[in-house]
Design goal:
Elements: H1 2-6, H2 13-22, H3 27-42, H4 47-58, H5 64-71, H6 81-91, H7 97-104, H8 110-123, H9 129-143, H10 149-162, H11 166-178
């Protein structure tokens, strides 16, 4: 009955998503509805529209399978460095470190790419010693830049402290206080 009612007006993504909310208590029905009604709209979407849709599917709708499927249709070709970083941040919710780093490697500005890698590792550092170490590896390059040097000095000290390298952490904190 709901499908019949939906077909009474032209299909657009805004209506599809609105109706997906009506199906929120029936995940299978919602998924089937999105697959059948959203398919025609998805084919004509541009990359920026897909990026916006990805975020909406993930949150608040919680349609992770659909978000993952749509994510795999997005090409970073023609994206700005900031857009690639944003897309990689979304991809990080679903894919492995290697896939995320593959996207970040396509960033043209190498300093911005280092900052993007740092942000990726630093954002996932909680109880993850290898990521703390990898975040630390990006810091020397970022400290050379006036744009990022002040931002990473406290992060470096906190990472060193979390890794149990207390003498180095103390020196990093003292250095941070001088800046």
């Amino acid at each position: 009955r709901m499908d019949k009612q939906f077909r009474q007006k032209p299909t657009d993504m805004k209506r599809v998503l609105q109706w997906c909310e009506y199906y929120k208590h029936d995940a299978k029905g919602r998924s089937e509805f999105f697959a059948s009604q959203g398919k025609s709209v998805l084919t004509g979407m541009k990359t920026k529209e897909k990026m916006s849709l990805l975020n909406r599917l993930r949150n608040p709708l919680g349609m992770h399978e659909e978000a993952t499927a749509l994510m795999r249709t997005v090409s970073v070709k023609g994206m700005t460095d900031q857009e690639i970083k944003s897309f990689a941040g979304f991809v990080a919710n679903y894919e492995t470190e290697e896939v995320v780093l593959g996207h970040l490697a396509k960033i043209k500005d190498k300093l911005f790419a280092a900052k993007a890698r740092f942000d990726y590792y630093y954002g996932r550092r909680h109880r993850n010693r290898p990521y703390m170490e990898k975040a630390l590896e990006e810091i020397p390059q970022l400290q050379k830049s006036p744009q990022y040097s002040k931002e990473v000095v406290w992060a470096k000290a906190g990472l060193l402290q979390s890794l149990g390298r207390h003498e180095e952490a103390i020196k990093a904190y003292q250095s941070a206080n001088r800046q």
